Amino acid sequence: MRDPIAKRVQDMKPSGIRKFFDIVSERKDAISLGVGEPDFDTPWHIRDEGIYSLEKGRTFYTSNSGLLELRREICNYLKSHYDCEYESKGEVLITVGGSEAIDIGLRALLEPGEEVIIPQPSYVSYEPCTVMAGGVPVIVELEEKDEFRLTPEKLLSAVTDKTKVLILPFPNNPTGAIMERGDLEKIAWIIKEKDLFVLSDEIYSELSYKEGHVSIASLPGMKERTILINGFSKAFAMTGWRLGYACGPENIISQMTKLHQYCIMCAPTTSQYAAVEALKHGDRDVEKMRESYNERRRFLMHEFKEMGLQCFEPYGAFYVFPSIKKFNMTSDEFAIKLLEKKNVAVVPGTAFGDCGEGFLRISYAYSIDNLKTAIDRIKEFISELEEC
Amino acid sequence: MENNTKKELRLRILRTIEHEGRVDLGQLAVRLGVEETDVANEMSDMEKEGIICGYHTLIDWDKTDEQKVTALIEVRVTPQRGQGFDVIAERIYKYSEVDSVYLISGGFDLMVIMEGSTLKEVSRFVTEKLSTLESVLSCATHFILRKYKINGTILAKQYEDERMLITP
What we know:
heterodimer; A: Aspartate Aminotransferase, domain 1; Aspartate Aminotransferase, domain 2; 2 domains; seven-stranded mixed sheet; about 40% helix; globular; B: alpha+beta; Alpha-Beta Plaits; two-stranded antiparallel sheet; 6 strands
């Protein structure tokens, strides 16, 4: 029999996360700091709205772009929170999570061989999605000394005449880095000058702990070359509902809608009704969760400082990214030893790109008590390492 | 400290200790991004000002061997001239059996929550003490059969983390 699997799929690397997941799930009672989703349940009034929509029998497809009411709420939300203006008809597409938006955004933009600049460490799907869309990933390695922000120098050095798209994943998973207005302004002129398009993955936008989040789409002249991606998973603790959205100029969104229509049809109807409620009445929930994450973030930073673990201060998402370089171990070795000796699971930085070597991703989507138990074990582990 | 930051800090402290009465002050200060002395000072000020009225523990007595009966009693009273409901409320809340007293709008005036160890004890209190008070017009007693949620804490369900151990 001939090989049933397409070569380009075979060539896809399995995610580094997956590999580690398999190791961790063998362990009983491991304390995990490895989760990339909120520990909160979706606020009840939002869940209730989903249930109500089912009771009312709203079990049909919505339009391909999604419920108009939801698109309108998204436009209001983006205007009031981030000063981004979009038309609910034509410039918004409701997707199955931010993930789908990343995929179809890249597929809509890329001609074969065109280059996509991907800053790393970053979320695992940009690179494979680029390849599947026929593009060529060009990795920019971000550094701790820049607080893992994308600097104009780094961007410029990666741009070639084949570059078409820049992926902008901030607030960042796994580093927790953010890009402030000044940082964005410094790269915006390059993007315009070099005629690039931006896929801005702002799924963690609500989880910014410095000034409020700034979207690159709100900078002058940037809306027409930006696909803004956001969603409900992180802000409203709605990961399992699988709901995100893409906003952008009509010429791009209409083409993405075409792709979406053929492979997805429409995002889950129940989730869309629940999301309307989330945007209408969810601001207080978001604020409460943000405060709670921020407390945990400060707690972790304090504990790392106490135990002498070097870590730049992250101001976004719910991750810290401490350096373990001084222990002369790879991230993989460190993470596996920590798991074997203390039963604590963290994710090696290398799962998010080679330049994550020497770092760990530690999630604080856990209760303070949980974090404390885990931190105590990490403390023990480190002092044992330092003894030998 | 600036007035606004102080107000904000107080609010944050209250929000936290409302549910985590036993939180370590040092840890609380770290979490709020302030000095431990600031937290300690604000807390002692708020105790003096009567904003923080006590530090209690939420106990699900049903899980112990202790017998307890809780009753909600709707009380209709005649308010007294010049003193309104305060005097009668005071007469009622002074009984140690009485747990809480609220002035209520609507079909009755005072909501009295009391605890006794037996049904008999509660009914004796209602018939002998409460309803015989001069200004009490009527009492309607409701017994609590089961407590599901108290002060924001759900008693029924144990929280379990159902997330996968590692996700991207």
